[in-house]
């Protein structure tokens, strides 16, 4: 039980840590603007007092993503996301607040100091366990494993840089060592490092395997992939074994080496997707640092979102066997549905990228990358080669190729593909278009942007203008007069409703007001016109109500009510005419 002094000490320690973190957040925001951060992921263009771009969080044709340099915030009218630089990095990099703080503090040159109070977060302990295990695996990498990796084409620099390690044949070497360092059974199991048998005994998850650490987008180790190695490896063991799903590792959301490939993807404006750690390491060894790899799963929507935040161009370099072609087809469908441009590297039959680079050299790999074909042309070539009979080829094109044409966003590119398909099948373009109507379409986010649609009602525009100007240090209109006029003209409780808005709703309205009125020179005249139109709208609603009541009174033969309602309606119509 804590003494009063002990409790006070802990409270004071927590308060000091919290104050330091708030100081760090403030320092980062002072050095990095919202424009500095967002511009690394989206192409911003001026739109009045704001900046706008196509949203990096969902596929769209027209920009609905707005950034406010004045407020240091962003908001998308298409998918509703919004926040500051920290929430942006959390969302776009798929990290928690601490991960975002680490990334931005490093970029801003602001030092981070972690206090003991922070250790209470359970995920911190998992990160520590995984980092400690990585160091242990690295230390166990023996000469035999190094010789194998060198024979496969990896340099000592790449082995060290990617922190490749070795899990030996001991049943619980890593588990025992980590427990001696204070990690609990629960932490080791949750980190995916240990497993518990029916008797409750812990053993290592990875044994007799070369270990490839997998990091999140910030560079923190979240899991491992292990390849069988050594004479003591069980002959029936799977060639590759990955960390199971854990609080930190989700194979459908993680791409191997994405943390290293982010900047090269942006620099070269395309990403290379391979399957497996050795393919990736050899591609990086060959100078293509924009390469990422899936780990034990197909290319998913989350993977596509990750890559698209860096580039819209994806080059698939998967194995050249039938399974690899099927994997490329699935990956292409996913990428096209997210509005990406997809090409496929044509590898020599039976070769994967690692084999090709090792046997034929870096120049051959570069030539393969340069000669990559777009997905439709690639599929036509493969199908034509494998199905020389015309009828077989036609059916395969209808089943496999045409669905891709429906996924192509560019009408011009789609038209070119229709022409190519028609030429390959020796049929008319009209016939291809007719068949295309029956082909399935991958669901995708398309259509006009919600931001392109103006707020329809004056009452909504009044709210947007009021909240936007209220958020500014120096409003561009007479807020006192505006507020008084609202109280007189709008329904009771209108301003109270605005005051009760959530921070997210206020931010959305502020962006809407800025988008609509940043270009307006005389905002005082604007709000007066809005209130006039709003008043007319309320009068029109009242006219509709009175008209309905008059019809009802007439239908039931209530002459007294008819006379009264007619008088009220005449007065109201006169007011509407003057408004």
Our measurement of the CA-to-CA distance between the termini, rounded to an integer number of angstroms, reads 73 Å
The structural domain count equals 4
Number of strands: 16
- By CATH, the topology of the largest domain is Dna Topoisomerase Vi A Subunit, Chain: A, domain 2
Backbone structural class: alpha+beta
Q: Report the portion of residues in β strands.
A: 5-15%
- Provide the gyration radius in Å: 31 Å
Second CATH tier, the architecture of the largest domain: 3-Layer(aba) Sandwich
Short description, anyone?
This protein has 579 residues and is an alpha+beta fold. Helices cover 54% and strands 11% of the residues.
Protein described:
This protein is an alpha+beta fold and 579 residues long. It has 4 domains: 4-113, Zinc finger, CHC2-typedomain (DNA Primase, Chain A), CATH 3.90.580.10; 122-242, DNA primase DNAg catalytic core, N-terminal domain (Alpha-Beta Complex), CATH 3.90.980; 259-438, Dna Topoisomerase Vi A Subunit, Chain: A, domain 2 (3-Layer(aba) Sandwich); 454-578. β1 (45-47) and β2 form a beta hairpin. Residues 444-456 have low confidence and may be disordered.
What's the topology here?
Elements: H1 4-31, H2 34-38, E1 45-47, E2 50-53, E3 65-68, E4 73-76, E5 82-83, H3 85-93, H4 97-108, H5 122-139, H6 143-151, H7 156-161, E6 165-167, H8 173-180, H9 185-190, E7 194-196, E8 202-204, E9 209-215, E10 221-228, E11 240-242, H10 258-268, E12 271-275, H11 277-285, E13 291-294, H12 301-308, E14 313-316, H13 322-337, E15 341-344, H14 353-360, H15 362-370, E16 373-374, H16 375-386, H17 390-407, H18 411-425, H19 429-438, H20 458-470, H21 479-489, H22 494-499, H23 503-517, H24 523-555, H25 559-578
Parallel strand pairs: 12-13, 12-14, 14-15
Antiparallel strand pairs: 1-2, 2-3, 3-4, 4-5, 6-9, 7-8, 9-10, 10-11, 15-16
